[in-house]
Amino acid sequence: MADAQQTLFAKRFRGFFPVVIDVETAGFNNQTDALLEIAVTTLKMDDEGVLSLDQTQHFHVKPFEGANIEQSAIEFNGIDPFSELRGAVDESEAMKSICKFVRKAQKDAGCQRSVIVAHNAAFDHGFLNTAIERCKIKRIPFHPFVSFDTTSLAGLALGQTVLAKACRAAGIDFDNSQAHSALYDTERTAELFCYIVNKWQALGGWPLPEENTDEQENTNNEQDN
After folding, report:
1. What is the mean pLDDT of the chain?
2. Exposed end of the chain (fewer CB within 10 Å): N or C?
3. Which residue has the higher pLDDT, 45 or 3?
4. 119 given a catalytic annotation
5. Which residues contact 176 (CB under 8 A, 6 or more apart)?
6. What is the band of 209 on the pLDDT scale with cuts at 50, 70, 90?
7. 195: number of CA atoms within 13 Å, CB side?
8. 84 contacts 122 by C-beta, under 8 angstroms
9. Could you tell me where the DSSP H helices lie in 61-120?
10. Residues forming beta bridges with residue 38, ordered by sequence position
11. Which of 58, 60, 119, 180 is catalytic?
12. Are the C-beta atoms of 62 and 91 separated by less than 8 Å?
């Protein structure tokens, strides 16, 4: 896609579409432990390049067959994996719906690939990738390894790495009693990411100086290693 034809959104992140996620799980091992809850928030950008939250999709997920469930994990997040009150769906239903949801939002934004945004992103990204692979989904919108980690971004911008503390430093309300809900944590993480990106622009860090335009265009045309 020629630079002149790119949307403002696509120009901002080199054709990437940031998608914010959070997962709640039954342990730390994405190969063996159950994915219990996932939420995904898409973002939108106005004509001034300011990011904000757009839409959110959220699922309670049934443990996959043979999944390990660590008692310490469910005591921590307060989830009863087998409660019918959760309204949980099969993992394949959740993953297919999320991929379809993200592909549409990515296309509407004029972007070419989606990139996970998460707090301690390697953890969430690993569970997402493994669940998608387990469900044998072919049309995957997400980059397999690139991610934007709000832990690192918040450490740089706000001097905080804990989500609750980073949000408060940014003036974002954070209710500890609602934490460790994938829906709540995803939307707070999305607000935090938007705050940092928008603050960087307000401070003059974006757009890049005009003399860097040619270098940026060349970078946009390169493929990831």
Report:
1. 93
2. C
3. 45
4. no
5. 164
6. confident
7. 20
8. no
9. 71-77, 91-108
10. 23, 59
11. 180
12. yes
Tokens 């296309």 belong to residue:
107
d(CA 108, CA 110): 5
Is pLDDT above 80 for 3? no
Residue with tokens 């998460």: 118
Are the C-beta atoms of residues 95 and 120 closer than 8 Å to each other?
no
Output the six-digit token pair for 16: 């990437």
Separation CA 222–CA 164 (nearest Å): 37
Strands in the chain per DSSP E: 16-25, 35-45, 51-60, 113-118, 142-149
Task: Report the relative pairing of strands 16-25 and 35-45 from DSSP bridges.
Answer: antiparallel
Residue 173 and residue 195 in contact, taking contact as beta carbons nearer than 8 Å: no
Report the run of H or E that residue 200 belongs to, with start and end.
Answer: helix 182-202
Report phi then psi at 41, rounded to 5. -120, 125
Order the strands of the 113-118 sheet from edge to edge. Answer: 51-60, 35-45, 16-25, 113-118, 142-149
**Which of 196, 175, 197 is closest to 184 using CA atoms?**
175
